[in-house]
C-alpha cells in the first residue's frame, strides 16, 4: 500500500481523489488551502485524509513530498517545478495535468538520475488528446502509412440545454486559468508554411468546426502546435494544428476584450474603485464620461455590437465596487465571470475533442477522424473534471504498480504509457468514435 498526496482541491481534483481511493488500496491525502474543500473531496473515506496546505510553505511541501510515494499537483502550473524539485529530493514521483514548461524540462536528467518520473500533460488537453492521437499515429505507421496532416480541436463547454447565457460559456476549471490562456501566442503549420499568431490576435481568425454529436463551433489555435511535430514524431508533416473549441460568437467578444486591455495583469493597477472605473481607465476617459463609446472605439466594434452587449450583461459597465483595492483589469474581469458564468445545480457540461488526420499509403490516401464527446452527470462529476482527473489518477496507479517505468520528465506519447490509460478510460465510459474515408 502506497501513499498519494493530491495538492489542490479545485474544480477538477475530485475524480483524482475518488478514483485512487476506489480503485486501489492506497491512502490519499488532500492538501489544500481550504480544509473544508479538502474534506469534501475525501468524503469521509477511511483511507483518506485532509490537511491545510500553502504552496509558499516550503517546510510543509518538503514534509508532504517526504511521506508521499506520488504527489499529484493540481495547483496552477507555475508551482509545478517547485513541487517537482521536492519530489526529486526525496526520490518520489509527480503527476500533473499541465503542459511541460521550459523550467520543468530542465529537471529531466536530475529526475532520471534519482529514479523519479515527472509525468506531465496527463489530463484532457493536454493528456487524452496526446494519447488518442499517438495511438492512431502509431497504428498508421505500423500499417505502412505516413501522416501528412494533423488537425485537432478540444473544448469544454456547457451542454446545449445548459447554454443559457450570452457568452455561451461557463467555467468547469480555473476561471483565472481560462483568461490567462486567452493571452497566449500561437504557432502552427498549414500546408508546409509556419503561421505565427501574436497573443493579441489569438481570436482574430476563428474557423468553423463541426463535431458530430456535439454541434458547430469556433476553433482558434492553441499555443505552439509546431512543438508537437517532434513530440508526435511527425517529421515532414505539412499541417500541424492544435486548437480550442468555443461556441459561435465567442472569438469576436474575446478579441474585443483583448483589444480593450481586459487581459492585463502585469501592468499598472489603476486607481479606481468600480468595474466601470476599470473600463474608463482602459479607454482613457473619466467615469462620468462616455465610457461605453470610448470602449467600443478602442475595441473597434459598434456601440450596439454583441461584444458590447455581453460586457454590459456581465456587469463591466456597472458602478459596483471592485472586490479588492488595486484590482487589475484581468482580476476585475475574472471576478465578474466568477459571479455570472457558473454552472447551476443540476446543469451539465460537455467535452468535445476531435482529431482529423490525412494518412498516405502506397496505394491510397485516407482521412481518419477520431471524436470524443462526453457529458457531465447532473449533480455529479462534470465532464471536465472526469476527463482531466481520471487520466491523472490512472497514471498514478500505473506508476505505483510498475506499468509506467519511464523516468525523468515524461509526457504520455508512448504505448507503454497511453495504452493502459486509454483502456481504463474506455472501461469508465470515456471512449472515442473513429471513422475512415478516402481523402
What does this structure look like?
This protein has 439 residues and is of the alpha/beta class. The chain folds into three domains: 3-119, Rossmann fold (3-Layer(aba) Sandwich); 128-250 and 344-380 and 431-438, Dihydrodipicolinate Reductase, domain 2; 253-340, Domain 3, Saccharopine reductase (Orthogonal Bundle), CATH 1.10.1870.10. The chain is 36% helix and 23% strand. The chain contains 16 helices and 16 strands. A seven-stranded parallel sheet has the order 3-2-1-4-5-6-15, with helices on both faces. Helix 2 links the parallel strand 2 and strand 3. Helix 1 (14-23) packs across helix 15 (383-400), helix 8 crosses helix 14 (329-340) and helix 15 (383-400) packs across helix 16. The longest helix has 18 residues, at 383-400. The model has no long low-confidence stretch (mean pLDDT 95).
What descriptive keywords fit this protein?
7-stranded mixed β-sheet, 439 residues, Domain 3, Saccharopine reductase, Rossmann fold, alpha/beta
